[in-house]
Specification:
The protein is an alpha/beta fold. It contains 10 helices and 18 strands.
């Protein structure tokens, strides 16, 4: 499964039972946490997400509503006797901040914590099942967007056909790669009899806090699902610009220019209790717009 669960969708101040930014991306059984605002631990527990499966954390920038929950999560991992490696990606200063917090509490983590500084645009994670790349967006301080891409074998295994030919499980990956199967007596079972073409690999873009800029759209052209901040409604466009944020209409314009299939709106200002107007304004520009509501999982 490739999907994103919304843990927090509000901007700087928690309000109306909405929490600061955090998302959990699940791609081919791997968990990636994107941003870790205040309350993220509680949200992981509320939505019954197994936090031990999180091996990568991406922090877009160092405004508190995007990482103030991080030190608590890291220390809780330790209290829960985590031993698996954890990879943390963020602006270079994040490493110093975490080290100071751990030193002040005289805390030694029982697991390897690997810091990866975000300095250059491009690929930052490359595994057998997914990859992640980053690019800069246009905020008041340095801020990064992320694109998660799943990896798929070229062929999809027809298990009932494989079982009918008594093919051992250890050959299944070769079949997904397009290879024929040779039986013990030397006869060939053609791959086309055992597999079908796989569906195209999907992708998800997390576009963090940013001014409206068409370069963002150019960077995510062809991405299937886009999350884009939409802090304000159209009437507050001037305020959005002065604070290096976007409106719902501007987020929809980015999704339209990028030819996305779906847009998720989030990072709502706490001045708005009801979010319906965000959806109305965005859908006038890009009909496949949705509110990134907390607890909801969107399939990619």
């Amino acid at each position: 499964m490739f999907g994103v669960t919304i843990l927090g969708n509000n901007s700087a101040i928690p309000a109306f039972d909405r929490h600061p930014t955090s998302q959990l991306v699940s791609v081919n059984e791997n968990f990636i946490l994107i941003d870790c605002g205040e309350g993220t631990q509680m949200q992981l527990s509320k939505y019954k997400i197994k936090r031990s499966r999180i091996n990568h954390i991406l922090i877009s920038h160092l405004h508190g509503d995007h990482y103030f929950g991080l030190i608590g999560l890291l220390t809780s991992f330790g209290l829960q006797s985590r031993t698996a490696d954890l990879h943390l990606f963020g602006p270079p200063m994040l490493k110093d901040i975490i080290h100071i917090q751990l030193k002040a509490a005289d805390t030694v983590l029982p697991y390897p914590l690997h810091f990866h500084d975000l300095i250059e645009e491009g690929q930052i994670i490359d595994t057998e099942k997914f990859s992640v790349s980053c690019f800069r967006v246009f905020h008041r301080i340095e801020c990064w967007a992320f694109i998660v891409r799943e990896k798929k074998k070229p062929r999809k295994l027809l298990k009932e056909k494989a079982f009918a030919h008594r093919i051992p499980h250890e050959y299944f990956d070769d079949l997904r790669d397009g290879k024929d199967y040779i039986t013990a007596d030397g006869s060939v079972v053609e791959n086309s009899e055992l597999t079908a073409p796989n569906t195209p690999a999907a992708s998800y873009a997390f576009c963090a806090d940013t001014l409206f800029n068409e370069q963002v759209a150019r960077n995510v052209v062809g991405v299937k699902v886009i999350y884009h901040e939409a802090t304000y409604l159209h009437a507050d466009a001037a305020k959005a610009a002065s604070r290096f944020h976007c409106t719902a209409v501007q987020a929809a314009q980015i999704a339209k220019k990028a030819n996305a299939q779906k847009l998720l709106l989030g990072h709502f200002s706490s001045k708005y209790e009801n979010l319906n107007a965000f959806l109305t304004e965005a859908r006038e520009v890009f009909p496949a717009s949705y509110l990134a509501l907390e607890g909801q999982t969107f399939l990619i």
